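Quality-control log, excerpt.
Job 1 of 2 completed; input and output follow.
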Amino acid sequence: MTAIIQDLQKQSSTNFIILYELILPSGGTLFFHPGVQANTANVTFDGNTYIAIPAEITGIEISSDGVASRPTLTVSNVLTTFKDAIGAGYTFNDLLGKKFTRRRTLSAYLASAPAVEYTKDIFYVDRIIDRSIVSVTFELASPFDLQGVQLPQRIIMAGGCPWKYQGASHELTEVNKEGGCSWNTYSQLTIGGTTYTNFVNITDEPVVINTANVATWAGSGTINNIYRTAQTGLVKINNNGTMTQNANSDNFWQVMVASTSNTPSDTDAAFRRVRTYTAYSNTTTYTVFTDASYNSYVSNTFGGGVRLFRKKYLTQANTAQGADPGYNDHWELADSCGKKQFSCTRRFQFRVATSNSQTVPNTVYDQTVILPFGGYPGSRLYQ
């Protein structure tokens, strides 16, 4: 490090080189340099090849006190050069939360092994400030400004909501409210004077009431309708702890497009998986599988309202083998939050649709409803 500092102070012909590294949504790394002074040639350093993409970073400051600097990175996107480098199928929004590194060296040290360079500057892409047909500008944040930094009464986390789920539900008294999540304790919301229940599980799957007339997939379907397909090869955990191999259950799918004749699957954008529940009865058998996503869901009155629960541990044939749904070892509260912004979307932007004469969540969200973005330091642009 001493030698490279001394070289920079000399009046020599060696050039100052700036290199950028950006983690891509695909998990790979984009290596690029700003291509200053019409230098569009590739630059090789530390075993990596950096391509030329015009870019500028401003606002990097080092201070021992005060708030951490939030530099801005502007990248040219003329002829969609930068967009193409991100990768097909990804958008600028997919870069939020990704690691960005600025590296600096001198041209004389490009071939050095090991690499000789100045201290790396590491940031994370926090938000999009501006975008146009010629460029996109990001605001960068220090790792200390995003991850694990505790402020009074709050922990900041990148990419996740720190608020207690339903902690500020409107039916709570002010003294009992905690945090900023105002989603109703009983997953209810009122639209046009009508109150609806909108259960969503921890993986952001809608959980809808199971009616006997849910149609079996017959090769075609229309938007918002829910269909079932058979699921075989599961392992059921019986009430005595033994296992039943090759047990059967059902998959439930909601159609996401106007119409489709595709076969429902998790990898087909024409469908999304939903789960179903029934009202709890102590004369009904509730099943448990080694794949817990197929465990029985039920609704049951608990704590002043109807809550959603999922069976745990053992299949329950009657109350002698378990307990009524509640906070006990036999059931788990199933309306839980995935702690992502999409988790908010599936709750607060709920719209009504029908399937088999039953109210279900619409596959198109109501984007006029403002999400409580205050829980996310790295919020995506509202679109």
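Job 2 of 2 completed; input and output follow.
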Amino acid sequence: MKAVVDSNVLLAAAISEGPPFDIVGMVFGGQIAPIFSRETFGELADVLMTREPFDQIAREVRAAFLGHLAEHGTWVRPVPQAVKCRDPNDQVFLDLAVAASADYLVTGDKDLLVLNEVGGTRIRTPRQFLDEIRTQ
């Protein structure tokens, strides 16, 4: 299953348990093929490596986390879509998901969630995503 996992979900997984943590476990277990672009991964790496509260995690652990995500990821170039997100800063995740024909875009961002589905990509919260795939 191909999924764009928003940075907010991956960052939450780095510091707490719950659905985001479970999703990362599925990525590392090969059940989910995460889709990244240079921009989305760069944003993730920047926040994880330079901002609080992540600086409380050993730098080597954060680097290993990013390395594992990159290793399991599929890299795609986003393609601008006609459907626009309310927040232009989140548009890259929408463009990436549709360009990659992702099954899901997993996010906690209400500006993306309000769209529900675009181009065959279902947009879900981490909890909704887990509930859906567990019933399939």
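Post-run check on job 2. Residues 59-72 form the longest helix (14 residues).
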